[in-house]
Amino acid sequence: MPTRISLCMIVKDESAALPATLAAARPWVDEIVVVDTGSTDGTPDIARAHGARVVEWAWRDDFAAARNESLRHATGDWILVLDADEVLTEGSGPALRSACETAGPEVVGFNIKIVCPREGDGGLVRLNWFPRLFRNLPGVRFEGVIHEQVIGSLAGRGTVVNSAVEALHSGYTLTQEQMVAKARRNVALLERQLRDEPDYAPGWFQIAETYVLLDRLDDAIAAYRRCLRVLDLGRLTLPPGVVAVAMQNFGAALLARGEREEGIRQLRAALALQPDLPPAHVHLGNRALADGDWEAAERHFADALAAAERAGDQGEYQVSPWLIHFLHGCARARQQKYAAAVASFDAALALNPRHAESLWLLALTAGHAGRWDRTLDA
To answer: What is the mean pLDDT of the chain?
Structure first.
């Protein structure tokens, strides 16, 4: 029998974003299940117009519960999970069908690439890989009241591998005010869950990240410590990449609070676990700049660029390449390597032409290098 794919979604007041998401996915899936959690803007009618089966469900402050309600209604062999603001990119439809139709019996799920452009950061694009395409197996369910994941229930049942499926996510284009409001909501949900499940490591990681966004640095550091302690106790296993990111962000928070030695130690531990983490190299480079160790800073930023190149579009956590080039140029200029610094600032400006500080430092270093034409242009 042909392989059947169910698209499962949860939505509320998504009339602006939903049509594009459903239009891109509709030709490649066999059914669409949309759980609506209380829309007042016509979202259910839009979903039905695209052939979806709409399930009305009362919101309970629990994203995993809503996701699991959508899974309960899926009849396909495979389940694809998308948010309303995630649109399959060109070529992802055929890749979706191919992945499901050719998967060996040992494969229980696929990570899909979520491409997240961010406004105001010189073209930063964060790439996240999540198991959003998986077999419709008994007992497969989401966990976590927020930033919910299905990976825990897939563990031990087979392998989860990367796919060529990607979705463009517009959720990071919110204003700062909207991001803060969302973070406060998330903190309240996570704090409630962690009172009930104090050893839930993903929850400690997510609340630490959210505390950072809210500038609650002491709370973030305590949450990172708890996350890593739970992992050390072996009570929950997370993918090595997530553990490395937790160590990296813990190290960055420690440095921000002035705890230099422990911060550096955590960043090095993160790189020992996953060498291709550009932000960890950048944090070490910034620390070296602050220490006045220009040579070490240059080395760390060069390592960051190399790590970014190796990771390519398979990376999990990125720093905008223009920023690394800019910092690399700063470290080179401090050592009076003016020609090399000019090359670094040129590379930064090729990616972010409107970065005024790169233009200013390019003007200065080009003058030191005797390139007065470049100085005047800058």
So the answer is: 91
Per residue in 298-307, pLDDT tens?
999 999 999 9
Q: What is the pTM of this model?
A: 0.80
Pairing relationship of beta strands 31-36 and 86-88 according to DSSP bridges: unpaired
pLDDT at 236: 45
Describe the chain by its helix, strand, coil percentages, rounded to 5: 55, 15, 30
List the 125-135 sheet strands across, edge first: 53-56, 31-36, 5-11, 78-81, 125-135, 107-117, 159-169, 86-88
Residue 296, burial from CB neighbour count under 10 angstroms (0-12, 13-18, 19+): middle
DSSP state of 268: H
What secondary structure does DSSP assign to 116-179, as a single string? EE-TTSTT-EEEEEEEEEEE--TT---B-SSS-BSHHHHTTSSEEEEEEEEEEE-GGG--HHHH
